């Protein structure tokens, strides 16, 4: 290998009898993980420094006088490592016994139960019964401010939380106080973690139930939650997340690693903004008729009538109002339908913007962006222009007097009056919730939100990211691309409409050169940059100018 | 109620003779009249002795101050094979985790006793009890108050002198 200058230098070693080849500088722990061997660890976290203080990653290295902490021991050529030798197992068993001397083991009431690393490791490697008879020391719990609660008794003193605040958040608000068995994590003065905008990550990285989320406290058990790879819809950074769902409701968001976007982290704003996904009172079936003449109907009927009406009005002026909470597929299908129906005069979206950005100092790629919607950049690439104010209201000049076709997707028109769209020849409203401003809509069509369908967003870096379906849609609600794609295809008379999300994405790629070369399957769960990501974001930034 | 009732189809009236069956039954009755090894129990004056492992309707144990012992750990709804326990956990004013909602649908329950076995705080128990008649079906969904009011004996799933059955 050293003779191949173009490849990064690698070393070859043996771990538990398996030949492993890793890049030079890799730690034994990472090398083992790459070979599918998990070595227990608390203080080591891939996104933080490694102080080698928890002593549970000890492994046997042939030739070394004693066991080595695998998180900081660098893999060497020809090394022979045993992670499961009798000596290593015996030593780790002893370490875990010490961890349990003062540990309350109140797993039945601990929020971490089911995903706790102490539970897992002790179950796998620890002693069957404890031998300590002394009473355990008791700290009780401490409110750290923000969304974070600290149960000192459960802490394993890994200091991941302390190091996160210092190294990644750049805001050292946590520290270890006291020593030995009296050591606890504490905050300075009374300020605590209040107002720190990335502090929620300490709950994720705490390997045990010492740091828990107040918001999630007692809400659900870890094993009841379904995990779905998704993308945070809080801002246009599009952090990769997992939606944790139960009873068809989103219960919490957890960051999902993606070194190109968010590392291991996400911001507290995004973490807390998911309640809108669960909002009750959904539209469940299509409706037709204006005002008091409105009647619920079914999809076959409503699509037939809508198609006939669009045929009648063929060539009329079309105004399109979209929403950057909707994925590219829906917005592209909306655009396709508008083009097939008539002369598109305006394509707009309205979306709230924050006062400023909020970067994470220790991971510069991650910035909570100003645009507080996931697909502002995708909407820009698909030809939609921003309209209205920084709270996502106002704008829409001239829509009141518009007498052509008005298509609205996802914008609830909260600031508009009941007269909205009164003069339009055809007003179609696609949304998740009914709205007073939709009173004049000729057709009200229930569509799914992003968590109830799969699709893609484009983030502020010009990266196309795919998310999967996490929830069952209410009633007969359908993805917007399915409804709009069927109408557009019928109107333009060009073949069968896409029936799956990958087909909808392919249709979008074919129609919009900015997405050229992308393949739905290749996107995977990590996403891929647009071919011309730089130009695309510059264009999007241009149209985003204040 | 979502539970449907199956109606039995019987032959039309007048198309069946019960004479043979009646005679057969009477002969059996007469046979037992002259055979005094009766096992009849004069219920309800006389109560049957239930086995220690008899598993009947549930009972929730309570603390001395009247709080339920359940800590809402969620293990019993997880283990329950009939999926008949509904639990919503929360925190009371003293900071204890407790069940805000705890319901068992005794109609769906198959009385396996696994909820009692899995409970880490010995809160939920199946009971040595069988008199459960009610006038309406919905009374068979026992809520937390009802479970705490029960005062029948609880099941012994293992011998306390030999907990590991050795
Ligand atoms: S931290 Fe882990 S081991 Fe400790 S009580 Fe919680 S779940 Fe149990
Ligand atoms: S609170 Fe959690 S993350 Fe912090 S030191 Fe304790 S165990 Fe580690
Ligand atoms: S006895 Fe079995 S079926 Fe009945 S509630 Fe308990 S676990 Fe469920
Ligand atoms: S197992 Fe026991 S403590 Fe846990 S929820 Fe059921 S009754 Fe409550």
CATH topology of the domain at 56-149 in chain B: the name is Alpha-Beta Plaits
The CATH topology assignment of the largest domain in chain A is Rossmann fold
Task: Indicate the CATH class of the largest domain in chain A.
Answer: Alpha Beta
The portion of residues assigned to helices of chain B is 10-25%
Backbone structural class of chain A: alpha+beta
CATH hierarchy: architecture of the largest domain in chain A = 3-Layer(aba) Sandwich
First-residue to last-residue Cα separation of chain B: 46 Å
- Looking at the overall shape, the CATH architecture of the domain at 56-149 in chain B is 2-Layer Sandwich
Q: Quick one: which chains have the greatest interface?
A: A-B, 11 and 14 residues
- For the biggest β-sheet of chain A, the strand order reads 15-14-23-22-21-16-17-20
Ligands (ions, cofactors included):
iron/sulfur cluster
Can you tell me the residue ranges of chain B where pLDDT is under 50 for at least 5 consecutive residues?
Answer: none
Q: Indicate the structural class of chain B.
A: alpha+beta
Describe this structure in words.
The complex is a heterodimer of chains A (about 550) and B (about 170). In chain A, the strands form seven sheets. Chain A has an eight-stranded mixed β-sheet, with helices on one face. A five-stranded mixed β-sheet of chain A has the order 2-1-5-3-4, with helices on both faces. In chain A, strands 6-7-10 form a three-stranded antiparallel β-sheet. In chain A, helix 2 packs across helix 3. With about 550 residues, chain A is an alpha+beta fold. Chain A is elongated, with a radius of gyration of 27 Å. With about 170 residues, chain B is α+β, with helices and mostly antiparallel strands. Chain B has a domain of about 90 residues: 2-Layer Sandwich (Alpha-Beta Plaits). Chain B is about 20% helix and about 15% strand. A three-stranded antiparallel β-sheet of chain B has the order 2-3-5. In chain B, strands 1-4 form a two-stranded antiparallel sheet. Chain B starts with 18 loop residues before the first helix and ends in a 17-residue tail after the last helix. At the A-B interface, loops of A face strand 2 of B. The complex binds iron/sulfur cluster (SF4) (4 copies). The site of one iron/sulfur cluster (SF4) has 13 residues of chain B, from helix 2. One iron/sulfur cluster binds next to helix 4 of chain A.
